[in-house]
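Researcher: Let's run the pair from yesterday's discussion. Sequence first, then tokens, for each.
Model: Starting with the first of the pair.
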Amino acid sequence: MPSYFRESRNVELSTLEFLETELAAAWSSVTVVKAFKQVYSKDTKLPIVCVRLSDSDISRKEIGSTALDTIFTILIDVFAKSDAQRLDLADFINQTLKDSWDYKEYSHVSGNNKQIIGTPNGKCFVPAWGPNNKVDAFANDEVKDRYRHLISIDVRKNKY
């Protein structure tokens, strides 16, 4: 029997998979990851896009209801080779996210906890953007931080 993931994990993975597919179709050699450990690995070359769920804001849909309305905050860090590439990647990502993408329910393949599959079950969309800015490295000697950009988005999930 498959092991299904919960909503927060599904939103993060759906967004990660969507951006990975869109970037691969329009850009060459952009690595998409979901953890800083992967960003700072010596094997991961620039440019890199790191997609991660930061937090979620949960409220009741209406007074007296037990149904919840959740807004997920996704942080997207762009690590580029130059300031121009940083700006271009950030603009591309923002334009790509303005439309909706598939919300998928992920599960492990039966008997294999290393492989996951996603089944579409709704849409994700961005009702609001948060900060969208350059991240200054200051005295940091890490080359990967020189041309870094942070995009913050709120994401909602809708059923079909």
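Model: Moving on to the second of the pair.
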Amino acid sequence: MNCKDLTICDYIKHNGTIKIVDAVYLYSVSVYDPGKPWGAASSELISVDDIEPIKLTEEILVKNGFKKVNMTVDGDYRHYHLHGVCISWEEQSGFWYGEGDIEFKYVHQLQHLLRLCGIDMELTI
């Protein structure tokens, strides 16, 4: 990953554990494990080379309140809506917003899209 692709509150994976970014630097990020009792007080600084993005799935969309509104007969093309935001999914190309202008495949990218659309919500992974 690249630090310029991340922002505070993004979900990432480090050593197989989901963590939340609380600071972004040039070649590293500060992250914490939301499952630990001290949360952000137990932040650790790690190299951006040691983190990985979390792949976005349809299950994550549904778990976070997105409603499947329609699909093609063969089921390979779907639309998901939440608070006026429509995300499309196709077997071949993955997820996109708008007329295919914004393609994404990771949870942190979905978080950025939601923020840009004025939706302030904490995702469940």
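Researcher: Give me one sentence on the second I can quote.
Model: Helices lie at 58-63, 107-116.
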